[in-house]
Amino acid sequence: MTCKDRSPYIFHTLVNNHKRITTVFAALAHPTRRRILERLAGHGKSRVTELATPFRISLPAISRHLRVLEGARLVRRYRQGREHLIRANPAGMRDVQKWIAQYAAGWEFSFDALDKLLMPEQRKEKKP
Known about the structure:
The protein is built from five helices and three strands; from the N terminus they run ααβααββα. By secondary structure, it is mainly alpha-helical. It has a domain at 3-90: Orthogonal Bundle (Arc Repressor Mutant, subunit A), CATH 1.10.10. A three-stranded antiparallel beta sheet has the order 1-3-2. Helix 1 (3-28) runs antiparallel to helix 4.
């Protein structure tokens, strides 16, 4: 396989990854959805009605928030008979974690380089 053969694959992978990261950040942008994830992180799995208890919004509104979180792959829905159980999906955050780690490493490198650059100036200032 030549480089030309792989370039569409690489491009599609980057675009799909970008869309995925954007979807996750959009889902996390709403405070109610973040609080739902916090509750799930502490309880494992919960019924939809249990998740809705502390919120002052309707059950249909909670369901809409859960659909957004499901679309971002941050939660998974299971059925046990008539009950819908919701569980956090930590794997849904992996792409975002990798993206953040890449940028954090770049920022650390930049700050280290800036620190080295400014060190001689700081020494000059300390001398009387």
